[in-house]
Amino acid sequence: MFEITVNNRVIDAEEGETILSALTRVGIRVPTLCHLPDLPPVGACRICIVEVEGAEGDGLVPSCSYPVAEGMRIFTNSRKVINARRTLLELLLSNHPDDCLYCQKSRDCRLRTLAEEYGVRERTPGKRFREKLRDLTGACVVRDASKCILCGKCVRVCEEVQKVSAIGFVGRAGRTVVAPAFHQSMNVSSCVGCGQCTLVCPTGALVEHSSLDRVAAAVGDPEKCVAIQHSPAVVLAVAEEFGLKPGMDVPGLLNAALRRIGFRKVFNSAFAADIAIQEQSKELVERLKSGENLPLIAACSSAVPFIEEFYPEFIPNLSTVRSAQSILASLIRTRFAGEVGVSPDRIHCVAAAPCTARKNEAAHAVPGGEAALDAVLTSRELLRLLRLYGIDFNSLLPEPADAPFDMRSTAGKLSDVSGGTAEAILRTTHRLLSGRELKSMKIESLRGLDPLKETTIRIGDAEIGVVVVSGLGAARRVLDLIRSGVMRDVKLLEIHACPGGCIAGGGQPFGVTPEKIKSRMQALYSIDQSEHLRTAHSNPDVRALLETESAPESAELFHTAYAPRDVIV
Predict the structure, then answer these.
(1) What is the pLDDT of residue 461?
(2) What pLDDT digit, counting tens, does each position of 354-403 carry?
(3) Is pLDDT of 125 > 80?
(4) Alpha-carbon distance 515 to 179, whole Å?
(5) 2-31 residues labelled b (16+ CB within 10 A) or e (exposed)
(6) Domain annotation for the chain: domains and CATH numbers
(7) What share of the chain is helix, strand, coil (3-state, %, to 5)?
(8) Strand partners, 321
């Protein structure tokens, strides 16, 4: 530890850290565009430059990659620094479109915010090659090259964190763009729809493929009965956005808000999550008894295409249970439609989800059947819809979700957090194998933000090795270890594509931080701890529904199939 001087203030610095990390640690703000805290710096944007007394040249250095040294004198806001940052912003804006009024990310655009902060009020239009300015082919993510500033954050997240490499730098010099390999479109790339690129993009170059206009049109159509379902992670996003205090019945307020917009029926996805958990638990028990297709892989909507694409040999290991939103949509079109006497053709099924990948479920039919969902709104789209209709949560009273899919356990809510699905499955699996409830519902070893978590649960004479991963990079490491035989005793593998689970999904509000993820985790764990219905198999409505479903009907409604996925890379 040694001392450095920053803006005439003495602070402590550590050997080996960068100027940016040292300044951030003590609360001194330095603007960035390309920096990702958990990855090595690249210094692509140079917006983070600071003035270092005695440094070579003009003394301006990129703080993200420049190491600290004892006795260093640093200035973060000198006239030279401010003018240099302003010039850099002007250069970036010279090739940027002037469509902020229409841009999907205008409220959260980092480039626009910095331009405002540094007083950039004029721009000299530049000329730069752009190929395929707008790529609308992907069901999940839209790529707009005209808004790309080549910061590389999306490329690094896709390559270094998620290990998917769906996009990269293509072309050279002034013809460089961020695109899939060989300048192909998103629909034939290796993209799995996780949407993590949209969370780090500082502009509107990568955004979700919006279904907002289509849903608003359906709500306004008197011939349609529009039903919407929302997941626990979406509720958390709404609570954060509107500043709703802890302890408030946020699901109830959201139910009321959605009815004010015009949705005829409002359901809770956690009900179907209870169904999914019970079906996955049955699968696990059957595979434990047969010894085949282990580990059982409970994968999210991004992890499934990831395995289909990169690890097709693990397809037999995938749980055949559909996602909760697809299960509930199927029930709405069949059982609910029959009970209320509405033709399935008149029902328009919408899901509000924290995930961009779930848009695939509305865009594509599943093997052996048709897509039950008409549209999927991300949390961001839902928030825009609530603002569009001028919803004031302070004027609302909580309302229950619609029957018959309103009852849910806390196990169903835990499915949106990393480790929660495995924890919920183990609660029910213990009951199926032993006839008793798990002594401690809380499995501490499966909780937290670690990308890899392991534990072993003993049920009678059986030992069940459990591995939980969040982030596809971690998933790749574990699958490689299982394939090589290093991990031999894994019986249950949970994979969430997004770090922390669906609560940090690619469709959640921008500005996701580890602190926010922890807060969302704790909110769901607090609900789990405070309520009495904590296992999927104890949900009386789900139990009654499963008892009335025949095996063929159950297989059609709740299960699907998978196939290898061919892409260009």
Answers:
(1) 83
(2) 999 999 888 775 554 567 899 999 999 999 999 999 999 989 999 999 98
(3) no
(4) 32
(5) eebebeeeebebeeeebbbbbbbeeebebb
(6) 2-91 (3.10.20.740), 95-209 (3.30.70.20), 214-558 (3.40.950.10)
(7) 40, 15, 40
(8) 559
Task: Give me the phi and psi of 250, to 5 degrees please.
Answer: -65, -45
- Asked whether residue 113 carries a pLDDT value surpassing 90, the answer given is yes
**Tell me: the pLDDT tens digits for 433-445?**
999 998 888 999 9
Cβ pair 209, 141 in contact under 8 A: yes
User: Which residue in this structure is represented by tokens 């008409």?
Assistant: 374
H helix or E strand, kind and range, residue 200: helix 196-200
Q: Which residue has the higher pLDDT, 480 or 246?
A: 480
Which H or E run includes 554? helix 551-558
d(CA 305, CA 310): 8
| Residue for token pair 């993820």 | 517
Q: Side-chain half-sphere of 44: how many Cα atoms within 13 Å?
A: 17
Token pair of 545 as six digits:
């529904």
Q: For the chain, state the CA radius of gyration.
A: 25
High-pLDDT (> 90) share of the chain, %: 76
Which CA distances in Å does 1 have to 11, 17, 25, 343, 513?
10, 11, 14, 71, 27
334 has pLDDT over 60: yes
Helix and strand counts by DSSP (H, E) for the chain:
20, 18
CA distance 271 to 395: 27
Distance from C-alpha of 379 to C-alpha of 43, rounded to nearest angstrom: 32
Least confident of 279-288, 322-331, 477-486, 552-561: 552-561
Q: How far apart are CA 557 and CA 494, in angstroms?
A: 22
> How far apart are alpha carbons 307 and 317 in whole angstroms?
10
Residues 277-317 pLDDT 10s: 999 999 999 999 999 999 999 999 999 999 999 999 999 99
Whether 20 contacts 35, CB under 8 Å:
yes
Q: Which residues contact 350 (CB under 8 A, 6 or more apart)?
A: 215, 218, 226, 227, 228, 229, 263, 373, 374, 375, 376, 377
Residue 503 to residue 252: CA distance in whole angstroms: 19
Maximum separation of any 2 CA atoms in the chain, in Å: 80
Q: Which two tokens stand for residue 443?
A: 């499995």
Q: Mapping DSSP to helix (H, G, I), strand (E, B) and coil, where does residue 267 land?
A: strand
What is the strand order of the sheet 375-378 is part of? 265-268, 225-230, 347-353, 375-378
CB 463 within 8 A of CB 435: no
d(CA 462, CA 16): 48
Does the structure show a pLDDT above 70 at 133?
Answer: yes
Cα–Cα nearest to 499, from 302, 326, 268, 231: 302
Residues 6 or more apart whose Cβ sits within 8 Å of residue 256: 396, 397, 398, 399
Q: Strands, DSSP E only, in 231-360?
A: 265-268, 296-299, 347-353
